[in-house]
Structures are given as structure tokens and as C-alpha cells.
Design brief:
Elements (H helix, E strand, L loop, with lengths): L8 H4 L1 H19 L5 H29 L6 H31 L5 E2 L5 E2 L15
Antiparallel strand pairs: 1-2
Length: 132
Amino acid sequence: VDVLPVLPWPVVFVSVYLWAVQTVVKLVVSARNPEGNRGSLIVKFIVYSLLAIFLGTTLGLLLARLEGAGVAAAVIFIPSFIVLSLLCCCTSCCLPFVIFADSAPEAGKKKKGGRTAGIIPPGMRVTLRPST
């Protein structure tokens, strides 16, 4: 077989379209659930909307480039790299501190055995005195 079947580029990304539809259906089903938390649903909707705008724009520009339009590769990939690097920076640098601060006990609170738990206030920390 010397001839390979040629598909248009939008058909290649059908799995991405199906994933997007599946996620929208999940959001709609969870919105109809009266027992669900409305606050987390709103956050999920906002995050999904931003993700859909970002991926939709990138995928649309990529498809235009693959179909032969005069879109430069830098126009497609540089914004993607900027957004992904900011996302990586925020999740790897800031998010652990937010999680730690939320789950840490109150500063100076006594634990069993008389030891303090959590972050020690600066006035109560052990410091090294310089030798004279």
C-alpha cells in the first residue's frame, strides 16, 4: 500500500472536541445537582472557560497553520509558552504555600506535651547569640 489515506486536519483533533463536550456535560450535570457546592461549581466553570478559550485559540491557530494559512509558528506557540510557564510558576511556587497556610495550625497554639504547633512568632524563636 503506497497511498496513505489523507484526512483533513480538523478531523485529527476529534478527540479534543469530544473531551471538551464531555467536560461541558459534566459541568451541566453537576449544576443540576441540588446537593452540590455552588462555590466550587462557579470556580470550575471559570477555570474551564479560561482553559477552553486558551486551548481553543491555540488549536484554531494551529489548524489554520496546518491547513496552509500564513500564520507564523511564533504567533501560535509563544503565547502558549508564556501562559504555561506562568501556570507552572504559580502552581509550583505559590500553591504549596497556600495549601500549607490553610492546613497549618494556629501559631503559638499549644499541642499535647506543651510544645507549640505551627509557625513560631519571631519574638519566640531561638536565636544564636554571637560570642564575644
